[in-house]
What we know:
211 residues, alpha+beta, 4-stranded antiparallel sheet, 5 helices, 61% helix, rod-shaped
Amino acid sequence: MTRTPKSIRRLLAAATALAACATAPAALAQDYGAMIQQSMNRMNQIINQGNQAVNNIVQQRMQDPAVRQSYQQYLQQMQSAGRQPMDFATYTYYYVYTNGYSRGGIAHMNRVENGNRAAEMNAWQGVRQAEQNRAGAMQGQRDSYFRNQQEAGRGLMGQSTYYGPSGYQAQLPHTWQNNTYQQHQGQRYYVDQSGQYYVLGNNGWWYPINR
């Protein structure tokens, strides 16, 4: 079985990373174990398909007399230079990739390899961003749950959180009677006949606040 060359592995890694990036932000309501297993299954399927395609091409071209002759010449050159040669399968792969090690083919391979590296980097950056988004969303869920628990506890004590303009926020008793004025923690409040709460601003105007 021929190993998948680096360029194919980089393309597969980029494709897998992009798939993970696409699914990660929507994973909050899903079973993370199942999601990870599904991603791994997709990755394995892509890798197996890529390996099979590469192996088929390489095995076919290894039977080509022109490739065999070229490899023998290559072996002689490497032996004369005292260098370790590639095995026949790897040589055949690059023979196909570079169109017989032609100048134009080598330039094409370099362009593709550079593009693969850039795509891989972008894909992993997308994965990191997706992980950060997911972590932020999970923290948001935890914060929301904590706030809800706090609010439930205040409700048992007859209080609620009221919000108003300019970021106003206060914990107030929600049992105040209608048509009453209240003084609470140094602030003046009014409850109208419908139960609407108001807070008195520093400018003398009354502002509605709501739970």
